[in-house]
Amino acid sequence: MTRRSVLAVCAVSAAALALGGCGGGEKDAAEDGPSAAATTLAPLPAVKPSDVKPLVGRWVGTAEDYFQFKADGSGVWVRGGQKLWSGAAIPEGDGKFRFSWQGGDPRMASYWGVTLEDKSTLVFAGTNQKYKKAVAKKGKG
To answer: Which residues contact 87 (CB under 8 A, 6 or more apart)?
Structure first.
């Protein structure tokens, strides 16, 4: 497996474990009664197109993966034709965006989002990898 493949697998695995919970509670807590309910995600906030405008487009990484965002804030993360994530980018301000998870807003998942370094570079917090904005191709005519 190449270094890029290993990094991508690690990033996806870490995100899935962190966001899905690992169920590692203490034995005493389990004996006292039923386990706690799963963490409830907040509803997705309304996203204004002007808030996500700098994010709109395709951002290409070095591990043959990319993020692509639309003006409504929806986005995908794809590697090798496989969708690793799909959801919404939620603006936090100062060029930071956190990602929705399972239709909700995780609010506190600082590692599950991106930060714009400048107009052409973003950093995915889950892997600290940089992505470059792809140049939009103009049609003929």
So the answer is: 74, 75, 99, 100, 101, 103
